[in-house]
Amino acid sequence: MIKQLILKQNFVLWIIAVCSVIVPFVLPNRYFQDITIMTFLWAGLATSWNLYSGYCKRLSIGHAAYLGIGAYTSTLLYLNFGISPWIGMLAGGVISAIAALIIGGTTLRLKGTFFVLSTIAFAEILKVMTITSKEITAGALGLMIPYQPGFTNMIWQGKIPYALLTWIYMIIVLFISVRLEKSKLGYSLVALGENQEAAENLGVNSTRTMLVAFVMSAVLTSFGGTLFAQYVMFIEPTSVMSMGNSINFILLAIAGGMGTAFGPMIGSFILTPVSNLLRGYLVGISGLHGLILGLVLIAVLLYRPDGILPQLKLLFRYLFGKIAKPGKGE
Amino acid sequence: MEQVLQVLISGILSGGIYALASVGLALIFGVVGLVNFAHGEYLMLAMYIAYWIYNFSGLDPYQSLIINLAVMAVIGYITFKVIMERVLDSDHSIQMLLTLALSMVLQNLALMFWKADYRNIRIDMTNDTMNLGFLTFNTPRVLAFLIAIGASVLLYLYLQKTFTGAAMRAISQNGKAAQLMGINIKRTYGLAFVIGTTLVGLAGLLISPIYPAYPTVGASFSTLAFIVVVLGGLSSVPGAIFGGLVIGVVESLAGYFAGPAYQQAAYFLLFILVLVFKPNGLFGRS
């Protein structure tokens, strides 16, 4: 009975996801706790990205735009009107949904390459607009959130509350992703990713399916944007809406396993700490940590384009089941 | 009026460079079917090579042209052999991600070797101007424009008049049929890739006397080149030349009328409009 439960592979992955909450309590100092928070946050963000781009195999290289909408909406509402970031987070979600509807409505029908380029263009336009509308967003100077701890302000002393918050965010997004995978919407998305024409002939409403997933992905990303702003307490256009951030979504998802519910989380659990530690320890040689990440990505793409997750699943089977030996397929 | 004309012409001058930076991308896309996000990184490399040669031997970018282009061709060949050749049959998204990763690697390599400082090449000609009636031009820019347009047109003629050029066009129309006609696909792919990287390298070399080199200089040119080729119909070389000129003009007019901050926004907006209303490019066939 227990053995069967364990062998349902998602079970082990859920255990990993849930138990990861212990990590910030165990870690001795703020530096490692900070890395943990970023790991949770990026796990949630990459999973959000994966909802559309991963299942549907259509890359969005502009998700930093929704990260930016989330961060800027809640921060501007808080700074100008004193509105709690909890409400600001929802407002950011609404704006992201509207933006995704408009953008998705016009670009989702574009063929592969064109779609990818349009996502980049949207993110860049938004970044430029944020930089130029200085009266509202303070432009390139960025916005500072004053330190006034309190639950309604979503600001706390110490790192633990942030770790819990980002962990909850990750779990929620993960839950949505797992549910999506087993829903009609999820199956339709995967079918569209495999072969759009065939899927349409079988009665999949491609426009509606893609739009729903795209909006979900954008809204969840924007929630993460608010959390990012509240945690870092300083946002500027280039730190939030940079192309580098957009690429990070993809890097984590592809390293873990694109188009699987748990892949992006695994990707973030491995790569975010590695990336942060590298950045910390190789601070003397600028560029080295980016170089290593780039090489890792190239290696993954060339040798394991499905990511780490399938390997991990084989390992679980081997460890817990000893039924199939690793390397003998699923 | 005079000012507008001056702005317009300076837009055309930059447009020539954009055209040269983009024709290679259009060629690679058309022939190899590869969306190369690392395209701008080759421009960056060429700028650093020009800088290095200038610093060590005193040869200015024009004198070191041959060496620089040869190095660029070799770099292009190595990337094709080591990385691109393995994924020719892979999913489009895998290819795109791979070129993204490659651009990450090249940018960070540049950051390691040369730090984030701006590197300028100040040759005698840098501040030279020539006058034509009431209009004034910066000599290196005019030179860059002329060479850029010349090289782009040469590429066009090469595709039209030579056998290998015809082979490239054949592959871009129908790869399988071309292969059946006895065209060595992999060799032609490699050649197209090398020509593409060499041409964008030439663009980098030409702007090196007037534009500083820094590790992320290529990234801005990458996105720009993408917009240019989309305007021109993605795989069309004359389309890319035309698209480059359009972007150059749009950029400088937007800079003049709305302010320099809106230059980028203007061509991105144009890009989205074209994608939505004419996804096959300004004069692409459907």
What does this structure look like?
The complex is a heterodimer of chains A (330) and B (286). Chain A has helices spanning 2-7, 9-19, 23-26, 30-56, 64-81, 85-107, 112-132, 134-137, 160-181, 184-194, 196-201, 206-232, 237-240, 243-256, 263-281, 288-303, 309-321; strands at residues 143-144, 234-235. With 330 residues, chain A is mainly α. The longest helix of chain A is centred in the first third of the chain and has 27 residues, at 30-56. Chain A starts with a helix and ends in a 9-residue tail after the last helix. In chain A, 49% of the residues are buried. In chain B, strand 1 and strand 2 (135-138) form a beta hairpin. The longest helix of chain B has 31 residues, at 2-32. Chain B is globular. The chains are: A mainly alpha (330), B mainly alpha (286).
Pick out the low-confidence regions of chain A.
324-330
> What share of the residues of chain B lie within helices?
over 70%
Radius of gyration of chain B: 19 Å
Q: What summary fits the major beta sheet of chain A?
A: 2 strands, antiparallel
Report helical residue fraction of chain A: over 70%
Judged by helices, strands and strand pairing, the structural class of chain B is: mainly alpha
Strand order of the biggest β-sheet of chain B: 1-2
- What order do the SSEs of chain B take from the amino end to the carboxyl end, as H and E? HHHHEEHHHHHHH
Order of helices and strands of chain A: HHHHHHHHEHHHHEHHHHH
Mean pLDDT across residues of chain A:
88
How is the quaternary structure best described? Answer: heterodimer
What fraction of the residues of chain B are assigned to beta strands by DSSP?
A: under 5%
Distance between the termini of chain A: 20 Å
- Compute the number of strand runs of chain B: 2
Report the uncertain regions of chain B: none
In terms of structural class, how would the helical and strand content of chain A be classed? mainly alpha
The biggest sheet of chain B, with number of strands, parallel, antiparallel or mixed sense and barrel status, is: 2 strands, antiparallel
User: What is the tally of beta strands of chain A?
Assistant: 2
Net shape of chain A: globular
| Strand fraction of chain A | under 5%
